[in-house]
Amino acid sequence: MKVNFDGAVFDNSKATGVGCIGRDASGKCVAWLQQRFLFGTSPAAAETLAALEALRMARRRGWRKIELEGDCLGLISQLRANTRDLSMLGPLLNDIFDLVPFFDSVVFKCVRRLGNVPAHLLARSATVELEGDNILPPQVLSAVLSDYQYKHWSPRYNELNPCASRLHLDL
């Protein structure tokens, strides 16, 4: 299973949004999550919180092999290094590391922002905690559909966007 995640910080409301989207091997959306936390934080902490919530979602759903994809290279590098951290992000990172043994395999990957648009939109539009299966919120569905159409109608898509996620829909 591939799980994309993203975090967002809302300046005007001192809140943090988290978005996650899980896809099967064919790229079909099988689960999604958006949460709003009523505290402001740094962008790095929002991304770390999003990674943690993505792993929690994967564990709740019983997924055993995970590719966790985010667009924050610094965080992905820290997760790959698998070292305990004494910074302010340390407790969140430690929670992530404590969840990893519950899976058969966890691979941390960095993707370009273009490959993380659905997770980003879920994070930016988070107003409450919502979790679903393959029926996405309308603001995310429209992005997924346009992404799908572009990928299938542009002959240069793979050349221009080698890191973008493959997303297939049953139309």
From TrEMBL:
GO MF annotation terms: nucleic acid binding; RNA-DNA hybrid ribonuclease activity
Domain RNase H type-1 residue range list: 4-126
Pfam families: RVT_3
Stored SUPFAM superfamilies: Ribonuclease H-like (SSF53098)
CDD domains: RNase_H_like
PANTHER family membership: BNAC02G40300D PROTEIN, REVERSE TRANSCRIPTASE-LIKE PROTEIN
Protein name: RNase H type-1 domain-containing protein
Annotated source species: Buddleja alternifolia
